[in-house]
């Protein structure tokens, strides 16, 4: 039976680690989640989809691998989520080999040993491969550390295996005083300092011993587990460095409250399945990452994982107060038959939109074709929150008609400039156009602004020359107007 534990947990210097966490299987075939905090070891039994655990376990993130000697013997795969083992699936009978140690690297290759023979198997294509014979006998677990494979040997201590040439493998940390009682290791890196914990059986319990790997010596006991450990595994035993990533911090105005913000934090746990807790200023905490009703100011964001990994950053909630004085209103009242216009202006116009009749527009959009009346607009900020309501009134300006006439016309029936009449037809009333020849004889009269002189007088073409006209009309304001001028008739 396997009697050694090697669990690797490497934590990058940008995070803090409050606990060392790994999984063990004891002599009763119980799988425990073990945590060591400040020298105190505690454990919790996991529920499982299989009762056939007997030895040799390994992990990569939440994927859990184990070997059994009962039922369908061989290698299995499962998952560990929330202290429950599920999805137990048979992978291989390992060619009948009974491993005494098991681990997995980051690429998904399992390594296992039986006696002095080392094997490997790809979990994606579970066909056993014999690597070769080692100069040392396996006593327990295997694990990777800094891309090197280490093993617990029966009488030699911790052995570093040379995968390129197993015959070159050597004792890395000799532990002669624990020959026959040393059954495992777990390793943790904190602030670039590697801490190793060895496991030694002692009267039905297991002592956890700290080892100084840099100086290859034993430091002392740091805790005791109240059972015999058969094997152990860690989510990072393949050499993975667990890093908690804060992916995004989205800060927006809380539309329902005056000048309040809300923050949504999204983060990726250091390990799959780990639960994250978010807190602001070490006070308000939740597991959703959503914080509301925040006043403008700076906040300390702290994210922690159930693995003990944490991440800190500073966030700033801006002041959402709207400076109404910065908003300019450009309006043109309707006049005569020309419709009105409203347009807003503001610095940093890309940060705002304007809403009219529930439809949104850019803040500098020109609203045209407007009649006299009152118009209500809502100003929204970049987050879509309404920050102000603006009412604008347009009044109908007095229409002073500008009736203009051409100074020449050519009544030759070619369809071009054949009729003498106003160039445009503004809204007027009581219109009267009178035309005289140079001797003062009235030769044409019209009371319709759309009816002009066709160049005939008494049914005959009038002669080429200059004629004089007088136009009388009443504008929309009720004022009477009179204009006069001359026109040249050209044939």
What can you tell me about this protein's structure?
The strands form eleven sheets. The protein has a five-stranded mixed sheet, with no helix packed on it. A five-stranded antiparallel sheet has the order 2-29-28-25-26, with no helix packed on it. Strands 37-43-42-38-39 form a five-stranded mixed sheet, with no helix packed on it. It is 0% helix and 56% strand. A hairpin with a 2-residue loop joins β19 (193-202) and β20 (205-212). The chain is rod-shaped, with a radius of gyration of 45 Å.
Strand content: over 45%
Can you count the beta strands? 43
Q: With helices defined by DSSP (H or I, 4 residues minimum), what is the helix count?
A: 0
Mean pLDDT reading:
86
